[in-house]
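Feature request, filed as a ticket because there's no other form

It would be nice if the structure record came with a short human-readable summary line next to the tokens. Right now we just get the raw output. Example of a typical job, pasted below so the devs can see what we mean:
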Amino acid sequence: MLTWAQIGLHRKPIFLLDVAGYWQPLVALVDHTIAEGFADPGLRDHFAAVADVPALTAALRTALSRRNPSSV
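Raw output as currently delivered:
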């Protein structure tokens, strides 16, 4: 999904439900890849990790309201 977002095949928000830090190794890998110059810093703009379902709900509402205010 990240690759599709990067090449413009979709513009949907991508959220990782990071319960108990499950996705932190992936986030750290992406950050490391960017820091070492193997990926553009803009990669981090394509996804976000959220800690729980209420945070996910809020993040989705925010992301979707930015795209189409009448759809929320």
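Something like this underneath would help us a lot:
The first strand starts at residue 15 and ends at 17.
The chain has a mean pLDDT of 92.
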